[in-house]
Amino acid sequence: MIKVLRERYCSAANEKTVREIEKATREQAKKQPGWVSGETLRDKADPTHTVIVATWESEKAFAAWESSEGRKKVMKDIAKLMAKPEKVTVFELLSK
């Protein structure tokens, strides 16, 4: 099992649009083989800063999602709304 953290900063003017895209993207991800769960966290001190935590059964399942056409299109759209590039970190689960 892996956890993927996506750290994003959007411009204040684009915050609502980004949240709508993120919500729609999560609905797509839920349908992917290997999806386990996900949540989006917003920084209380800076509402333009979010962290998305997604759990996947394997790196292979996550890689399939990342390389899917639907995901690529979403990332192209959302990248235009970011104040800086998204940071993605993949963690492996060592213990619960």
Order of helices and strands: EHEEHHE
CATH architecture: 2-Layer Sandwich
- The CATH top-level class label: Alpha Beta
- Rounded to an integer, what's the Rg over CA atoms? 13 Å
CATH third-tier fold name:
Alpha-Beta Plaits
Number of domains: 1
Overall 3D geometry? globular
Enumerate the spans where pLDDT stays under 50 for 5 or more consecutive residues: none
Q: Report how far the terminal alpha carbons are from each other.
A: 11 Å
Biggest sheet: strand arrangement: 2-3-1-4
Structural description of this entry:
With 96 residues, the chain is of the alpha+beta class. It has one domain: Alpha-Beta Plaits. It has 3 helices and 4 strands. Strands 2-3-1-4 form a 4-stranded antiparallel β-sheet. A hairpin with a 6-residue loop joins strand 2 and strand 3 (49-56). Helix 1 runs antiparallel to helix 3. It starts with a strand and ends with a strand.
Question: How would you briefly describe this protein structure?
Answer:
Helices cover 36% and strands 38% of the residues. The chain contains three helices and four strands; from the N terminus they run βαββααβ.
Please tag this protein with its features.
Alpha-Beta Plaits, single chain, alpha+beta, 96 residues, 36% helix, 4-stranded antiparallel β-sheet, 4 strands, 3 helices
